[in-house]
Amino acid sequence: LSQRAIIPASGFYEWKRDGSRKQPFAIRSKEHDLLSFAGMYDVWKDENGEEVTTFTIITKPSEGAVRSIHDRMPALISEEDREEWLDQESKDPERLKGMLLGTKDEELEVYEVSDKVNKSDNNDPGLVEGVR
After folding, report:
1. Which residues pair with 18 in a beta bridge?
2. d(CA 13, CA 128)
3. Which of 19, 40, 52, 61 is the most exposed place for a label (fewest CB within 10 A)?
4. With pLDDT > 70 as the criterion, what percentage of the chain qualifies?
5. Helix (H) or strand (E) holding 25
6. Per residue in 16-42, pLDDT tens?
7. Cα–Cα distance between 37 and 75 in angstroms, integer?
8. Are the beta carbons of 36 and 58 closer than 8 angstroms?
9. Quick one: which of 10, 8, 14 has its CA closest to 28?
10. 8 A C-beta contact, residue 11 and residue 63
11. Cα-to-chain-centroid distance, residue 128
12. Which residues lie below 8 Å from residue 91, measured CB to CB, with a gap of 6+?
């Protein structure tokens, strides 16, 4: 696990299948703090020799309230672990794995949102508001 990254996010969406319908849910910090998604990055050269930086978000089995919606979720790095996660000298695999599995479900809120989030043309701050 070298080239580790943190991807900041205000939250994320997951969809729960209900028959033929998929209901979107917003998941975010109860305190509305930024979440720190665990990630990995790479820098490579394209066919023109230009450097391209790419990243991926690490996922893990979901837990708590998220589990009832989806079987996977982003691995979240706690505020206390951020600096160590980014420290390329930190190489203990068990410690790093522990950081990935340390999400506290009680710190997240999960709620239904409008299915308007299903269409990428919709770009409105109100999309994160709960419904029902």
Report:
1. 21
2. 9
3. 19
4. 96
5. strand 21-29
6. 988 888 899 999 999 889 999 999 999
7. 6
8. no
9. 10
10. no
11. 16
12. 1, 2
Render 53-94 in DSSP notation, one character per residue.
EEEEE-EEE--HHHHTT-SEEE-B--GGGHHHHH-TT---HH
User: Which tokens hold the place of 96?
Assistant: 């790093």
Task: Report yes or no: 57 and 76 within 8 Å, Cβ to Cβ.
Answer: no
What structural domains and CATH numbers belong to the chain? 4-128 (3.90.1680.10)
Binned at pLDDT 50, 70 and 90, residue 44 comes out as very high
- Is the pTM higher than 0.85? The answer reads yes
CA distance 77 to 74: 10
What the block records as the tokens of 81 is: 């672990």
Q: In what order do the strands lie in the sheet with 35-45?
A: 4-9, 35-45, 51-57
Of the candidates 79, 98, 105, 72, the residue with the CA atom closest to the CA atom of residue 1 = 98
